[in-house]
Amino acid sequence: MAYENILVETHEKVGVIQLNRPKALNALNDQLMDELGDALLKFDSDDNIGCIVITGSEKAFAAGADIGAMANYTFMDVYKSGYITRNWEQIRQVRKPVIAAVAGYALGGGCELAMMCDFIIAADTAKFGQPEVKLGTMPGAGGTQRLPRAVSKSKAMDLCLTARMMDAAEAERAGLVSRIVAADKLIEEAMRAAKTIASMSLPVIMMIKESVNRAYETTLAEGIQYERRLFHSTFATEDQKEGMAAFIEKRLPSFRNN
Ligand code: CO8
């Protein structure tokens, strides 16, 4: 697939996807989401990639779903075509870690896309919000579900009901983003985190992602049990032997993703 709305690069073991519709503040249309899904699944199946970064521009990670494209949709248009589910869910199939590196606006579907990633590194210019109510609609790609889990019911209600934006500092205090960095250091910091992750044992990294995500899907007792099973299975990997031997021998480990 030739990409017209995203730029894709590989830096060592990190796959970088840049949303690239600058004139529309990276508004997310169907074509962009098809391309994003395609690029994500390609990186996920590439043995040379250990972590993926999704980013936007200085001004916008993404200012939401493309309002112009959906303005005249009817219920039947969106229901029958599976609007959103058709090409927004592919990111959830990705088993490798995905970092959102967010500068500027992450609004509506843009905020929802950032929340679908495994964690968010924000530039000090980042602004998050779910302003759909101002358009006479509501979040439709997980905003009412992921936001309360990330920032509490009270703040999620505030953002979704009033459409106000939250700056990077508030987003970090609330737990939506993992760290804030200076805008001109965003990509550098995101790449540093991604390269660190990509230097670890990939199967173990995938198990950790799977286990943390389980915390959202199940009871604590079930989650602990699930984690225990995965923890036990790390002892079946060569990388666990290598990692522990390297510590004991006071050297750096050399993981072989096995
Ligand atoms: N869709 C389409 N075009 C957009 C969008 C958008 N979401 N956001 C900005 N643009 C366009 C503008 O129309 C403008 O285009 P043009 O130059 O041709 O007029 C260009 O980007 C620049 O925008 P502005 O001139 O408005 O820039 P400002 O700096 O003045 O303002 C804002 C920036 C505050 C971000 C403003 O553009 C804005 O409010 N945008 C809309 C934000 C919004 O409401 N987002 C929610 C969209 S609805 C949604 O996401 C539903 C999600 C449901 C799930 C996903 C379904 C697929």
UniProtKB/TrEMBL annotation:
<protein>
    <recommendedName>
        <fullName>enoyl-CoA hydratase</fullName>
        <ecNumber>4.2.1.17</ecNumber>
    </recommendedName>
</protein>
<dbReference type="Pfam" id="PF00378">
    <property type="entry name" value="ECH_1"/>
</dbReference>
<keyword id="KW-0276">Fatty acid metabolism</keyword>
<dbReference type="InterPro" id="IPR001753">
    <property type="entry name" value="Enoyl-CoA_hydra/iso"/>
</dbReference>
<dbReference type="GO" id="GO:0018812">
    <property type="term" value="F:3-hydroxyacyl-CoA dehydratase activity"/>
</dbReference>
<comment type="function">
    <text>Could possibly oxidize fatty acids using specific components.</text>
</comment>
<keyword id="KW-0456">Lyase</keyword>
<keyword id="KW-0443">Lipid metabolism</keyword>
<dbReference type="GO" id="GO:0006635">
    <property type="term" value="P:fatty acid beta-oxidation"/>
</dbReference>
<dbReference type="InterPro" id="IPR014748">
    <property type="entry name" value="Enoyl-CoA_hydra_C"/>
</dbReference>
<comment type="similarity">
    <text>Belongs to the enoyl-CoA hydratase/isomerase family.</text>
</comment>
<dbReference type="InterPro" id="IPR018376">
    <property type="entry name" value="Enoyl-CoA_hyd/isom_CS"/>
</dbReference>
<dbReference type="InterPro" id="IPR029045">
    <property type="entry name" value="ClpP/crotonase-like_dom_sf"/>
</dbReference>
